[in-house]
Amino acid sequence: MCENNTEAAKKKVLSCIQPSGMLTLGNYLGALKNWVAMQEEFDCTYAVADLHAITVRQEPAKLRSQIYSTYALLLALGIDPEKHTVFIQSHVPEHSALSWLLSCNTQFGEMARMTQFKDKSAKHPENVNVGLFSYPVLMAADILLYKPDLVPVGHDQKQHLEIARDIAIRFNNKYGDVFTVPEPYIPKIGARVMSLQDPTKKMSKSDDNLNAWVAILDDRDTIIRKFKRAVTDSEAVVRMADEKPGISNLITIYSAVTGKTTQEVEKEFDGKGYGDFKLAVGEAVADTLNPIKERYDEIIKDKKALEQLYKEGANKAERVARKTYFKAMKKVGFVL
Ligand code: TYM
């Protein structure tokens, strides 16, 4: 088989990440780790979802620097913009444009059911904007433009992915085949990394308590300190159990970064106290994240090189997006 045929046979992967604040260990274990791993086998398209970020208020200068920083972090993780497509969502206008077509084919009730909308609107009652409400439609557009087979995400995006599938199926049934119906790709370990301070809540960069989350770019001492302060329980036995959400979360994190199974972790810390365990988790996480930070610190210095890469990324993405978008427009009845 010639090389071109091999390329054509590759399945497609698409995913995006918001540039809202520092990216966390949750983003890494739930999604980014898979983004990196999937490059070997698949044809991947990854984007910084900057349009999504303004569904909550952003300070312009800070948003701009976070978009740069998120793009640089993707490169530091080892995502290859030469072999794959890595771009900034707002640079490809078809995302917003397709979002309108899809909005007119999505029901109000479907959006109103989204748990993330309910959570976020409760958290920011002063800014329940229409974008926050229709956000999953934009996410559906991000996905469907590139006809991916698989979408690697953490557990919290599962509902949004299901609605993207529903929208695709409905559109195809109504207008003829345009979109591929994608499958979620959710890791077995690490799909739900919980807060270190309240392990019943998801680890999130928007958590005001800085000890609750670990940033991918935290330095070694900070990471270890945050794990030392992690909330646990009084049993002093390292074992996975529903009634031990703090320790269970730490076991999951340790498994995800070391590749050890739950049983192996429980055995390793049998008879040892929580102090030893928390230190080991902190060190293992720092060993995983610190090399990424070192590469990031180099990459972010060269804004010119970054600019060239994201512009090329947008050109590559747009060539694909435009085709799908025009096909959808034509099917709906627009004059092209
Ligand atoms: P975002 O930016 O909130 O998160 C990016 C990815 O990180 C995962 N994630 C987690 N996984 C495990 N544990 C956690 N605590 C944790 N926190 C975050 C998320 O599941 C996600 O995979 N709407 C999306 C971005 C988006 C998108 C898309 C994703 C826009 N368009 C198209 C896929 C396809 C979001 O806000 O993710």
Structural class: mainly alpha
Give the low-pLDDT segments: none
What's the main sheet like?
3 strands, parallel
Overall geometric form: globular
Describe it for me?
This protein is mostly helical and 336 residues long. The protein has two domains: 12-190 and 303-332, HUPs (Rossmann fold), CATH 3.40.50; 210-297, Tyrosyl-Transfer RNA Synthetase, CATH 1.10.240. The chain has 14 helices and five strands. The strands form two sheets. It has a three-stranded parallel sheet with strand order 1-2-3. Strands 4-5 form a two-stranded parallel ribbon. Helix 5 (94-103) crosses helix 8 and helix 10 packs antiparallel against helix 13 (274-299). The longest helix is centred in the C-terminal third of the chain and has 30 residues, at 303-332. The protein is globular and about 70 Å long. It binds tryptophanyl-5'AMP. Tryptophanyl-5'AMP (TYM) binds at residues 15-18, 26-27, 29-31, 49, 52, 139, 142-143, 151, 153-154, 156-157, 160, 191-193, 202-203. The site of tryptophanyl-5'AMP (TYM) has 25 residues, from strand 1, helix 2 and helix 8.
Keywords:
single chain, 336 residues, mainly alpha, Rossmann fold, Tyrosyl-Transfer RNA Synthetase, 2 domains, three-stranded parallel sheet, two-stranded parallel sheet, 55% helix, globular, binds tryptophanyl-5'AMP
What's a concise summary of this model?
This protein has 336 residues and is mainly alpha-helical.
Topology:
Layout: H1 3-9, E1 12-17, H2 25-38, E2 43-48, H3 50-53, H4 60-77, E3 85-88, H5 94-103, H6 108-112, H7 115-123, H8 130-144, E4 150-152, H9 158-175, E5 183-185, H10 220-228, H11 245-258, H12 262-268, H13 274-299, H14 303-332
Parallel strand pairs: 1-2, 2-3, 4-5
The chain binds tryptophanyl-5'AMP (TYM).
